[in-house]
Give the backbone structure.
Amino acid sequence: MRLLIKFNLVLILVFGTGIGIAGYISRNFLERSAREEVLQQARLMMGAAGGMRTYTSVQIGPLLQAHQARIKTFLPQTVPAFSATEVFNYLRSSYPDYTYKEATLNPTNLRDRAVDWEADVIESFRTHAAKEFSGEREIPGGRSLFLARPIVADGPCLECHSTPSAAPAAMIKIYGTNNGFDWKLGDTVGAQIVSVPMSVPLTIADQAFRTLMIYLGGVALATLILLDLAMVLIVIRPVSRLVAAADEISNGNFNVPEIPVKGSDEISQLARSFNRMYVSMVKAIRLLES
């Protein structure tokens, strides 16, 4: 087997092992990075929902209160949670994989009632008083990633959710008196939750991983070609000249010119030693012949 082929096989084994190790390490890193990227997007969406809640409470609600009193009808658009949910539903046209819910243990609007796992999240906020919570859960289509923040009852909330007698009559007419009351100031009554399938960060990680492996493979191939070129110029070509000269001498041709030597590396030293041996052998043979 030729030296260059052996050299290439060794390099392929080394590069392959290195790329495999790098791929294993980078795969886990890319998945964590993609997961954090999706959570950051969820934080931005959560912030937008929070901004919409504040906007509705501070600006929209006061403007519509007089209109509500005049028409004697409750407008859900004055409720911050309703506005935030509706705005997010419009946002889903650009981000269809993301869902938003203001899950509440005792809501006025039953569409906001917390299911079992959401109730567990709310209870976690009540127990640990955290400002943010993220995790994964199993859903029929696979795993889902979620980000949650607590909803704490404040003064404006109690205007509608303290007791039925304190709530607007128009709201009672629509939703009744069975749900959405007895909230206490400062209690964690619900959670804002943004959910997204784990397939989203995994897809991001897969794309980044494929790109990384293509780049690593391209760099490895280019490096192999450059090393082969260096191997040919520095080792293979000088050694081939030595082999050709040795073949000629072994066949009885003593008119072979000395091998030109440049440099002081091991190959050059080998060529000098070969030249000295060749000259000494020629002199010895001619001396014997005379």
Notes: The mean pLDDT is 84. The beta strands are 99-104, 133-139, 142-152, 188-197.
